[in-house]
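Appendix B, record 7
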Amino acid sequence: MVFLPPTTSTTSAADVGLKRGHVDYYRHLSSEARSRLPNPIKSIWKAAQVKTGTINMGNGDPHHTLYPICEMNFVVPSIEEHDPVQSWRSGTGEQNIIASYKDDPCTLSLRTAFAYGAGAGLKEVRDALADLNDRIHSPPNHTVSLSLGNADALTKCFRLLGDPCDSFLCEEFTFSAMTNAALPLGIKWVPIRMDNNGLVPSDLERILSNWDEATQGKRPHVLYTIPCSQNPTGSTLSLERRQQIYQIAHDWDIIILEDDPYFFLQYDLDVNQSTMQQYGYTRAIAEVLPRSFLSMDYDGRVMRLDSFSKIVAPGMRLGWVTSNSFFAEKLDMLTDSSSQHPHGMGQAFISELLGSGGWGVDGFMKWILSLCNEYQRRRDLFMDVFRQKVAISGFATAEVPQSGMFVWIKINLEHHARFSTSQTPTVPGGPTTNTADLMDELFRKLLNSGLVMMPASTFAIVDRTGTTGSHINDRVNFFRATFVGTDVTIRDGLTIFGRTLEEFFF
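Structure tokens (predicted):
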């Protein structure tokens, strides 16, 4: 068993690390995960796959001859175009048809894709994504399981790792749709302070080293983080910070849920053309992508979540989880007894797309690079219009995001005539400014003007420990805006924003 440190604030990470010696994955499981039994029917199904030619009279699958479908054709952009995204958008490029068949050869037969399968997903798809992982992250000893996108994967990870009254760590502003999913499980969130560069490692260390289990309950053992284009702030963790965070996780035996749907959407990339010509797009792009927590995971403490939502289409509802084999098995057991395996159409499409008859992995990465170029163009347009229509007033500022889809816009409320810094908190440790009230007023003015931006309060995680020094409602003077819309949307939206902002301040 792993060593559990004394319940005093003086316990050091070194004490925990020296006495632990190895990662006890079992101790991180929830009571639900520990008590779950394998789906017995799925267990027999898996055993039946071992020997080729086994006659299966045990399953309840309709026979493939009764499927009312024998072929699916997917019309996709030709990856031979110099800039496939621009050619596809303009309608000037060539198209390719990739097909899945029930009775003819293809990467993944529809006989297999449309049959019942295991929760982890079909081997052909998992192998293709494991190959992509290896080329990008080179993770040691990790297993790939499919999901219905990151929302599905995260909610299952919460169930896998969290018990009622557990405390999980997260950024102080985060994607509330996901953190809310953990609340009915009785999980409490502990926010970590952020700056313009994302999660602050020293604050993570402060929380863990000062944790008093006698008054606060069990020390947090899970960190949920969005390291690239953090939602909502758009910040991307530097390599130095990632290394510091991983070391802290190692010292304190923390499982990292690395939610990274924006990982491939990186901008201002200095891709080496010589490497690209000699070794292909995958290697050249992998060299300049941020280094993931998964890539440095020698402990097996990272559960990485990837998705096709931002790089193919959100309605696909298909993603993949990469973790150690122990967690993967427990995750698959949960899926086998709940949502079941991801849909066959999505698995068939990805198999053919990444297979020899489609784009292949290298063609897929060429599409990614072309997609990044288009999103970078839209980001640059957004920032140009923002400087012209908004920033010129001095009432709002914004950092240029390195990745993803969002700009985190700071509203400079200190210039507002009604801004107050001397409010008396209604509860101990409560807000001392009227920031939240003014931001709510501005949000409603924007809505009445025909513009929606997401207010920071939507994403704020309130600290219940009373140790952060200031209430988060004093720091909600931000809006999250997206730059992935059309050029017209960007220009018209920021024009409304600039005009309404001036009205608000005057």
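Remarks on this record: The two ends are 63 Å apart (CA to CA). Residues 19 and 382 are 52 Å apart (CA to CA).
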